[in-house]
Amino acid sequence: METDLHQVIRANILEDVHKNYIIYQLLRSVQFLHSGDLVHRAINPHNCLIDADSTLKLQQFGFARQLSECENIEPVLSDRIATRWYTAPEILLGSTKSTKSEDMWAVGCILGELLLGKPLFPGTSTMSQLERILEVTSEDISFNTPFAATMINSIQIVKRKSLKELIKDENAVDLIEKLLRFNPNERITAEEALKHPFVMKFNTENESICLSQILESKNRKEKNYIELLNAEIDKWRKQQ
Length: 240
Hints:
By secondary structure, the chain is mainly α. It has a single domain (about 5-240), classed as Transferase(Phosphotransferase), domain 1 (Orthogonal Bundle), CATH 1.10.510. It is about 45% helix and about 5% strand. It contains 11 helices and 5 strands. The chain has helices spanning about 5-10, 15-35, 80-85, 90, 100-115, 125-135, 150-155, 165, 170-180, 190-195, 220-240, and strands at about 5, 40, 50, 55-60, 65. A hairpin with a 5-residue loop joins strand 3 (about 50) and strand 4. The protein is globular and about 55 Å long. The mean pLDDT is about 85. GO terms for molecular function: ATP binding; protein serine/threonine kinase activity. InterPro entries: Kinase-like_dom_sf, MAPK, Prot_kinase_dom. This is Mitogen-activated protein kinase. Pfam families: Pkinase.
């Protein structure tokens, strides 16, 4: 692949139709992973490879985990800003349980960045990140994680922002709002998102690929997950 989505967004060369197509492909990739109960856990523009035809490929499976292994695991938090900007709020609040919704939050952040040309929530710290998220969130917020209530109550929002003020595309705003629900249980799934008007024109049933088994890698190494995924893709191609 020629570059990654981070570089392409900074170059400001994408037409609207490219943005629709890129999100469609990203959702299709996530649907494929989730159909095998595999959570990527590190989706961001740096891990979305892209070429001159706007073909997108998802990379970096070093943090990927099978859903049954996502209880009491170490959150994907680091000092790298590029990681924090796409981290779901439940992880910022200390949750040690990863879900498919974690990936969907990251997709919503990437969609916002594609349309704005800059990160949607460019926090400079965990608390700063939460503050920026809460500026555009009007939901009832409750999480049963240690210190979550203390963290949220310590944040004072001076001025709330509306996504409609930042983004003019109504379909895009609607999809972002469904992806960026603060409560992970209320976020749209990849399968549901693929039926949304923002990407529907690219969605055809014969392109739907689902894993035929639950993916499990005994040593949970990136290389092993990639081998398992490639084997499933080869199997699908032969069937076609």
